[in-house]
Specification:
By secondary structure, the protein is an alpha/beta fold. It has twelve helices and six strands. The radius of gyration is 20 Å and the shape is globular.
C-alpha cells in the first residue's frame, strides 16, 4: 500500500501555516516545509517563516536548516523530502507537506527523475549575465517545448532548462519520459478566498513585515554577504526587490510597493498552477465551517 501524505497548498498569504498546525494536531502529523526559501537560515521575515512559538511544538522539517550559500534546489528537496516521508510514516505519524512552491511539491510526490550532469561554471556565469528576455530567446532555440511549463519571469528555471540542454539532456524530454504518476496516496488541500480580499491581506502582510524589520533584515544580510544579490536565496519575492534601493538609491516606498505587486501577481500564478497541475480539494477559508469540512474529508481519506 502507498504511504499516506497530506498536502496543504495555495497562494501566498492565504493561511497555509495555520492550517498545517491544525491538521498536525488533529491527525498526529509532522510537517515538511514545501517552500523553496524558508529553508535558508536568516531569511525569516521576508519568507514569512513560522516562529518557534507558532509551531506549537509540532516538528517541522526542511525549515531554517540551510545557509544562504548552500546548494538547495528541487532535486535536493525531492531527496530529503522523500526520506522524511519514510521516516515520519515509520513512526506511525502523518507526513504533512505545507507550502506554495508547486514544482517542489509535485517533484516530491510524483515520479520526477532528475538527471545529474557535469556543471559548466563558465556557461552558468554567462547565463546569469543575460536578461530574462535573452534567456527566453535562448531557450526558444535550444528547448522550445520546455517553455510550455516555464514562465518568462522564472529566471532560475529558464537557466536550469538551458543548462540541461547544453549538457545534451533536454528538460522537455525528461518530463515527457515520465509517467506522471503519484508515488504516494495523497490528499491535496488547497486554501482559497475571495481574490480582492486575498490581495488586501497580502498588502497588509507586507506592511507587517516592514514593521517586523524586513528592511533591517535585508540590509544586514547584504552587508554580511555583498554577493548575495546574485545568490539563489535572494531571487525570491521580498528580497530581490530591494536591490534597486541598495545599489541605485530607489526609495523604500517604491520597493515595498513592488513587493506587494509581485506578491499579488505570484498569488495569481499559484492559483493557475495548482488548478492545472494537481488534483486539489479547495476550501474557502472565509466560510465558517471550512476547517471542519477539511477535517471530515481528511478523516474519510485516512480511513480508506
Amino acid at each position: 500500500m502507498k504511504k499516506k501524505v497530506l498536502v496543504i497548498a495555495g497562494p501566498t498569504g492565504v493561511g497555509k501555516t495555520a492550517c498545517s498546525i491544525h491538521m498536525a494536531k488533529q491527525f498526529k502529523g509532522e510537517i515538511i516545509n514545501g517552500d523553496a526559501m524558508q529553508v535558508y537560515h536568516g531569511l525569516d521575515i521576508g519568507t514569512a517563516k513560522i516562529t518557534e512559538a507558532e509551531t506549537e511544538h509540532i516538528p517541522h522539517h526542511l525549515l531554517d536548516c540551510f545557509r544562504i550559500y548552500d546548494d538547495y534546489n528541487v532535486k535536493v528537496f525531492q531527496e530529503k523530502g522523500r526520506e522524511l516521508i519514510e521516516d515520519i510514516s515509520e513512526k506511525g505519524l502523518l507526513p504533512i507537506v505545507c507550502g506554495g512552491t508547486g514544482l517542489y511539491i509535485k517533484s516530491l510526490l510524483y515520479d520526477y527523475i532528475f538527471q545529474d550532469e557535469p556543471k559548466d561554471h563558465d556557461f552558468l556565469e554567462f547565463l546569469q549575465s543575460l536578461s530574462n528576455s535573452q534567456l527566453y530567446a535562448l531557450l526558444t532555440h535550444v528547448d522550445q517545448a520546455a517553455l510550455k511549463t516555464i514562465h518568462l519571469n522564472n529566471r532560475q528555471r529558464m537557466i536550469r532548462a538551458i543548462e540541461m540542454a547544453h549538457s545534451g539532456i533536454k528538460k522537455s524530454e525528461v518530463i515527457a519520459a515520465q509517467q506522471h504518476e503519484l508515488l504516494y496516496d495523497v490528499f491535496f488541500i488547497g486554501l482559497t478566498m475571495d481574490r480582492e480580499y486575498l490581495y488586501e491581506r497580502i498588502n497588509q502582510r507586507v506592511d507587517r513585515m516592514m514593521k517586523a524589520g524586513l528592511y533591517e533584515e535585508v540590509k544586514k544580510l547584504s552587508e554580511q554577504e555583498p554577493a548575495i544579490w546574485n545568490m539563489q536565496c535572494f531571487q525570491s519575492i521580498g528580497y530581490k526587490e530591494w536591490r534597486s534601493h541598495f545599489e541605485k538609491g530607489e526609495s523604500i516606498e517604491s520597493c515595498v510597493n513592488l513587493i506587494k505587486k509581485n506578491s499579488r501577481n505570484f498569488a495569481k500564478r499559484q492559483y493557475t498552477w495548482f488548478n492545472n497541475q494537481l488534483p486539489m480539494h479547495w476550501y474557502d477559508v472565509q466560510k465558517q465551517d471550512w476547517l471542519q469540512c477539511a477535517f471530515d474529508d481528511v478523516n474519510a481519506w485516512l480511513s480508506q
